[in-house]
Structure formats: structure tokens, C-alpha cells
Amino acid sequence: MVDRTVEIELKLLFEAIYLKYSYDFREYSGASLKRRVLLALREFGCETVSALQQRILHEPQVFAELLQYLTIPVTEMFRDPAYFRALREHVVPVLRTYPSLKIWVAGCSTGEEIYSLAILLHEEGLLERSMLYATDINPRSLERARQGIFDINHVRKYTRNYQLAGGTRSFADYYTAAYDSVLIDRRLRDKVTFADHSLATDSVFAETQLISCRNVLIYFNKALQDRAFGLFHESLCRRGFLGLGSKETVEFSGYADRFEPFAKEERIFRKT
Amino acid sequence: MSSPSLGSSVTGRRVDAVVIGTSAGGLEALSAVVADLPADFRLPLLVVQHVPESGPTQLAEIFSRKTALRVREAEDKEAIAGGTLYFAAPGYHLMIEQDLTLALSQDDPVHYSRPSIDVLFESAADVWGERLAGVLMTGANEDGAAGLLAIQRAGGIAIVQDPEEAEVDIMPLAALQRLVPDHLLPLRGIAELLRALE
Predict the structure, then answer these.
(1) pLDDT truncated to tens, each residue of chain A (272 aa)?
(2) Do A31 and B95 touch (CB under 8 A)?
(3) Between A36, A72, A247, which is nearest B104 by CB?
(4) Known catalytic residues of B?
(5) What is the ipTM of this complex?
(6) Are the C-beta atoms of residues A138 and A73 closer than 8 Å to each other?
């Protein structure tokens, strides 16, 4: 018999977190969430998930720390350059036909993706007429994103990504280096509205032409994925675009027939 | 080195899935192990073969020419089917959900590896318990040893390639430091054992 004690404890922990802090992890995909909690156990010196739950309920600062484990940011600028190249070559020509644009990065983490999009739109002459929204549930990630400060050690990688993504200028045009960090250009930062928003509990806030939500949905179970696809479907204008992570698809979801593949390899879908 | 009683030592044990981990030298080892499995093989086989994170992998394409099994690169939320060889995608951990679907994640690499063998093995042990066989073969790092131990602790069958025969023996030796496998076999023996799991 497989011992289900830890599974029971995890269920109780996420129920407790939801009741106490309104963060809803109850429909996250179980396997990776379990792994993250077990890593956190070691860090907090807790023997069991139940022991961690007790601390979470009574020490809000422990929850703030746990949240950093539950929402691990994995991101880089122009990550998967082929995705940004496809946006530039195939989606931008359609975006050009709109008098004004609203673009939403859902699960923006520390901001690398939204700034990449801002650079792309700037180079295509669309940034002036665009409003960019970047949302996440992790307040620390949002704060870092808002500051637009990145580790200088990543710049070489980001520059290569930028070039592979079809960047038309020099990546160095978009940041100022200071000591071991780089600061994203103010003109880009000023175009982005960062906001706390949960795909699990919040609703749609704007009509958008393009939504990019990459490597977020793999952490959701099917029911929660469908909720997110529902939000995206509601937010997107007629024939709007949805960009997903390189291993994500609408195909196995309840919204399979409401989106069609637009750039199949790059996982860009279009509302039917 | 293969013994005729190999099959009977596992018959009567119902196994629902096989997980396989390998790294350097793994392509040849894996070929030897899956080449002769029949198209109607009942079990799913889930494989982590370490590959560089970036760039497409041709693993599924290569292996579809080497075996009668169906071969796929694992997709997130895909239902697991028997007679299918699933490869973990480069840059993503592969895990098993309680509802027998596949799950991908981009959590930190484990033993510098993503996909990591430990991550697959540990989540598979959680789901299948004693109805799981785990196979660890040639490789140049220690990924997989902890995962194989998790499989054995959950009552599953731990199989290690004989390090004498392995192209790179670091991975099997790391496992042998952590546990006494249920089977320590050359590739030919592993292939026979998998067929007997039917």
C-alpha cells in the first residue's frame, strides 16, 4: 500500500493557506507542488507537513517565505527566442491593424517577459499605442519586476536571446549598467502596469489583443487550467492571440475548440 | 550472466509501469533494453535520458525506428497509455500525477539535470508504489540514486545495470552505494526482465 499521509497533510495545508491568506493552491498540479513543499520543510526545519501547517497558520512571515517556494520564478528575457520571433513576424502585422493595444503577461514573475515584449513592440513602432499589464501572485516578484533591475551576469544570455529573437538594434540600448546590476530603460518601465492578480481566484480586468502566459499553466490541474483559459477567452478580443509555454497547449483543455493553432511550433493560439 | 529463472522471480508481481533513467552512454543502453519489446507490451515506459536543455531533441524520432512500441515526447496533462515509451522533454522535469497523467515542471535542476531522474522516480514511486519497476543504467552523475531508493522504499522493484558492463559506471555505482537492488543485471538481463514483467 502506498502511504497517503503526506497527500492528506498537503490537502489540509493548502486548505489552511486558502482560508487564512486567500491564496488558492488547491487546484495546482500535485506532483510539483508536493516537491516544493518538501523542499521547504527542510528549509524551515519542520519534520512534517502538519508541523509546517501550524507555523503557517500562526506566523504570517513563514507563509511569506513559503510563498517564495510555491511560486518559483524561472524566467529570462526573450526566453525561447523562436516564440518572440514568431510574435514579431506573424502576430505584430495583425496587431498593427488595431488603433490601440492592450497586452497582458499573466504570471509575469520578475518581469523579464513583459520587458522583452515592450522592447519588441518599441522596435515595431507599437509601444506608444500599447498598454501593458503584467500580473503575478507573488508580491516580491512583482516588486522586483516593477524595479526592472536584473543581474548583470544574465546580460550575455539575454543579448543572445534578443538577437535570436530578431532584435533589430543593440540590446544595450535598453538598459543601464550599474555595478552588478542592469536597470531597464525608464521608457519601457513606464509603459507597464504591474498588478497582483490570481488566475485561480480573480476575474478579467481588461479587453486584450494578446495574452502571453508561459510556463504557468503546467503548474495547474485541468480544472484550474480551464478556469485560466476561460479568463483568457473572456479577456481576448475577437481573433485575439494567446501565447503559451513551449510544452503547453489548449488542445487537451475544455477550450480546445475555442482556440486554433496560429504558430503551432511556437505555441501561439488564436481565438476562433 | 542472465539466469533462466529471471522471469519467474518477478512473475506473480503485478507491475503497472516502468521508469528508466540514464545519462552518458544511455542511447545504446536504452536501445538494447527496449528494442525487442512487443507492440502490445502492456506497460508504459517513462524515460529520463539526460540531454542538453536547449534545442530540440530527436529522441522520440530516433527511438520510433528502434522499437515496436509507440514513442512520444511527454506532454503536460497527457494520460499515460500502456505500450508507450515516453521521453522527458529537455528543460522540463517529468512527473506523474495521482490521476495517472503526466506533469511537466521547470523547477530548479536536480543534480544539474532537468529533466532529473530523481524527480521522475520519486513522483512515480508516490503514485505506483509497489507496482513500479525502476531501472537505472549507464551515466556520469549521481542523479537517480535517491529516486531508485524511493522506489524501493515504496515497495517497487529496483533494477540497476551491472556497472562492470555500463559504458559509464558512475550512475549505477552511486545507486549501489545507497541500496541493494532487487536486480543487478547486464542490459540483456534487463531486457529479459522487462519482457517478463508482462
Answers:
(1) 567 899 999 999 999 999 999 999 999 999 999 999 999 999 999 999 999 999 999 999 999 999 999 997 778 999 999 999 999 999 999 999 999 999 999 999 999 999 999 999 999 999 999 999 999 999 999 999 999 999 999 999 999 999 999 999 999 999 999 889 999 999 999 999 999 999 999 999 999 999 999 999 999 998 999 999 999 999 999 999 999 999 999 988 999 999 999 999 999 999 99
(2) yes
(3) A247
(4) 23, 50, 143
(5) 0.87
(6) yes
HSE-up of A186 (CA within 13 Å, CB side)? 0
A87: DSSP letter = I
C-alpha cell read off for A123 = 522596435
Pick among 3.40.50.300, 3.40.640.10, 3.40.50.410, 3.40.50.180: CATH of B13-73+83-104+194-198: 3.40.50.180
Asked if residue A81 has a cis previous peptide bond (ω within 30° of 0), the answer is no
Tell me the nearest-neighbour CA distance from B126 into chain A, angstroms: 7
Contacts of A18 (CB under 8 A, 6+ apart): A24, A25, A26
Cell of residue B135, nine digits: 531501472
Domain definitions of chain B by residue range: 13-73+83-104+194-198
Residue with cell 500502456: B82
